[in-house]
Amino acid sequence: MGEKVVAGGFDLSDRHRYRDKLQQCLEGLGKLLAQKRFDRPRNMMGLELELNLAGPDGMPRMMNGEVLERIASRDFQTELGMFNLEVNIAPHRLGGRVFDQLAEELRTGLGYADRKAAEVDAGILMIGILPTLTQDDLVSGNLSDVDRYQLLNDQIVAARGEDFTLDIQGVERLSCTSASITPEAACTSVQLHLQVTPARFAAVWNAAQAVAAVQIAVGANAPFLFGRELWRESRPPLFEQATDTRPAELRAQGVRPRTWFGERWVSSAYELFEENLRFFPPLLPICDEEEPLRVIADGGVPSLKELVLHNGTIYRWNRPVYGIADGVPHLRVENRVLPAGPTVVDVLANAAFYYGLVRALAEEQRPVWTRLPFESAASNFDAACRYGIEAELLWPAPRRGGGVSRVPAIKLVREELLPLAAAGLDAWGIEAADRDHYLGIIEERCRRRVNGASWQVDTYHRALAAGLGREAALAATTRRYRELMLEGEPVHTWPTGFPGPEARRR
């Protein structure tokens, strides 16, 4: 959805032509794969980080246009809501001290952006869902002033034909409706990209699916929405419901949601793109003049713009991506599982854990996806979102033929997955200092049973116990979160409660 689109209406002929172009693009992708036209292994990774804008009071600030004007950098872009920004980090080769390099780039960029935001009395927050958001904040009038967002909203609303229902039963229950997709803007995430060859794509994607639950368990950071304490990672149910084009009748028929974990392990990237065309009607039937099959016949590389645009309106937690760099096509796995924050080192620890783990699992002789039913991976994802670091997950027993057993996530991570992640980082050529530092943060979270979500919940309940009302407690928690985020120490070291100044403020 980073493509620039122009708002306008669509008629029946637009949709018919677009569907034809999608089929041409899919055929073109198949030809490129058959002709082995894709880039050689480069071990390239990329990172996108979505951000919130909040004022000194901890409340959201609807002013991303003003802030971006002051930042004046192509690295920073709008996101769906007017209180959102996104920063894109240039691709890096996995190896050496890459995570320390990324940390320094992020600190520099975010520090600059925060100073510019302060000029208009706002600040940057890295967090899965801003706790102080209210239902009144997430209305269509607060969509970013960009054509593609309004157009996407109009098309999803038209496809659904009625208000969106948000109904999440967690520690408390949230039940409300929305006339637009704007509640999706509450979900601020980290996207981790990994360029892979076609031959390795399926193994990497399957590995990423298998460990999505573990990523959430150790990295959860979104326990609140609209003043309610819900799941430890409330982004996935919110995202699914806020983009759901299906009324109740289509859900009852088993029609798939556009925000989707998937339903099976795969053997090629082509299968995922083909599923996208087979299962999901186009939302934005905008056709390019390119004729992809003619371009390929002439020896060129097609942009496949219709396929890329359609793919961007299907919200898989691990998304296949087709791209072109220096005139050469490539494939990427875009991991969209993690929430933003809490600090730069936490973001990079999550990244190191992910990249190491998928490398190791993708190269196992008996891959985990041959021993773990896909339904169990999907069930794990749901459990991790609900319970965070306290989740119990289904995982293949270590011994051959041992079946699947239920194990606490922290036990699984410490005893089995962290050693695998370390071996994977070694295989990438990551220096031992980077490997040990960032995986050590994951180890400490597990040892102390602390992540962003647990810290938010504990601090919020301390505020309630001190006599604050619900809204004041969420605002105080948000202010304290930002203070500690700016200090930059990993979340497992954060003290709960409030220091003297905040206590006096109560």
From TrEMBL:
SUPFAM superfamilies: Glutamine synthetase/guanido kinase. The lineage of its organism: Bacteria, Bacillati, Actinomycetota, Actinomycetes, Kitasatosporales. It catalyses: L-cysteine + L-glutamate + ATP = gamma-L-glutamyl-L-cysteine + ADP + phosphate + H(+). This is Glutamate--cysteine ligase. It comes from Streptomyces xanthochromogenes. Pfam families: GCS2.
